[in-house]
Amino acid sequence: MSSTATKPVPAYAQIKDYVRRQIESGAWPMDSLIPSEHELVKQFGVSRMTVHRALRELTAEQVLNRVQGAGTFVTGQKYQSTLIEIKSIAEEIKGRGDQHSSEVLILERTSDTKALAALELPADAYAFHSRIVHFENGVPIQLEDRFVNPRLYPHYLEQDFHTITPNEYMTREAALQRAEYVITARLPDAVARHRLQMEIGDPCLVLHRRTWAHDQVATDVMLWHPGSRFQFSGRF
């Protein structure tokens, strides 16, 4: 006969599990100060080194945030970003059973220095620029302000963006390799507020995104959405 013994869980791992349970249960809410290393040493009857390892690993996993001279806190945001699939706004609207329409405000060639820098193009180059309002059942839900790399999309200005979205055209021309993005809440300027039919003081949800194709920056885009009419969602 043979038997297998269950390996004991190391003390530092038990402390990590304890900390996670406290956070998940709400006993230690986000941004709250957790007990000190000294207090955890007394509570668990282990060495300072064991507690230090547990907290160090939880900090590396972005569960905790250690502030010099202040203590260790529960991280305020569990994830640094939200997984968002890059899809055409028209596809999303039609997927809800609604009607998409758009209004092209600007479609031009530009030498804007910030746009060239964002697209990693030389200072003597140019970029393409479009500004489009997207509507769902006649209600504006997105102001798209986009700069495009003409090396990847030389025929961008020739497209009819009333019948196809920039995203649909670009995806068809060159498959995207990767993306980086930031989501913020901002007050729109007068132009964005007017185009999105918003009241003064109402905030926007703004998605700033850069994408790459063929190892080059493909596009730099700001997507403005009325906060009262829009939300981001996804699964990961």
TrEMBL record:
The keyword Cell inner membrane does not apply. The keyword Phosphoprotein does not apply. Pfam families: GntR, UTRA. One of its GO terms (molecular function) is DNA-binding transcription factor activity. Residues 9-77 form the HTH gntR-type domain. Gene3D superfamilies: Chorismate lyase-like, Winged helix-like DNA-binding domain superfamily/Winged helix DNA-binding domain. One of its GO terms (biological process) is negative regulation of DNA-templated transcription. It comes from the Bacteria. Coiled coil: none annotated. InterPro entries: Bact_HTH_transcr_reg, Chorismate_lyase_/UTRA_dom_sf, His_ut_repres, Tscrpt_reg_HTH_GntR, UTRA, WH-like_DNA-bd_sf, WH_DNA-bd_sf. Keywords: DNA-binding, Transcription, Transcription regulation. NCBIfam families: his_ut_repres. This is Histidine utilization repressor. It comes from Pseudogulbenkiania ferrooxidans 2002.
